[in-house]
Specification:
The chain is α/β, with parallel strands linked by helices. The protein has 10 helices and 14 strands. The two termini are about 35 Å apart.
Length: about 325
Amino acid sequence: MTLQIQGMDRTTLIDSIFSIDDNNSFKKMSLAVYNYQYHNCYIYKRFCDILQRTPENVNKPEEIPFMPVDFFRHHSVTCIPGKAELRFYSSATSESVPSKHIVAYARLYKESIIRCFKMFFKDPSEYCILALLPGYLERSNASLIYMVKKLMEWSGHKKNGFFLYEHNKLKKILEELMAAGNKVLLIGVSHALLDFAESYPLKLNNVIIVETGGMKGQRKEIIRKELHGKLKKAFGISEITSEYGMTELLSQAYALKSGKFKTPPWMKVFFREINDPFTYVLPGKTGAINVIDLANVFSCSFIATNDIGKQNKNSTFEVLGRIDNSEMRGCNLMIA
């Protein structure tokens, strides 16, 4: 019997999502959220109808349609029109339209942030949190900036702070914090961390570096393994942590070592054939990444991303790159 969430009060629904603790409850909630979003998210319903995958013939999570992430660029993806406590926008070039994620209730994102963080790093109050996020910091309404600001609030450390290009200042603060025995979490985009590493290589102690990806034309694209190798050598540390998230999601996956990501219980990834969106690939094989993020209950939880990766046999996954011409491919799907 499918769990019904239509009419469930908001607090109970949110608590149910974040209390998922096994595959069975995840599957039940996925089908319930699919049914809810089919009936309440106009653009997702249109997409499902075109594919002829409706509640009448979708009986298991594997049959749920994954909506191309580029729909967020051209449509309002929401189950509650007119309700938005938060709006997040992706970066955009002169040739592209930014993605827009309408978040009806801020509590959803805050709950996901803190629960994900505690799952991988323990409580934010244990850290001084420093952020090297140029680009994101220079524009408004970036979900990553919102996330880091909340983590800093929960941390409460007086030295928490954002940095644009003040690498010398960042170096001095890191040295002060290490000398005082503070635990530090430094979160940054790839190109900014590389710039800092090249300008100020220093031996880090008791510091976790979290890279969020994102060369985005700032530097030559390199694979994650090469990026991590450069950072580990510059800072004398054995591991670099990675974060996998995007404007269109409210949850994050983290890789604590070797670029192998894990998700929280209310988020799962699947891998589809790049040229056949309805065929899944086996563990160990490369495919395009589909994400179920149940925290997206009031927008769309079933997203076909433009990222390529592979599922490992130990339930971790790796992100390997992007699909070529992914934006054009997404736009073509929207015309269908």
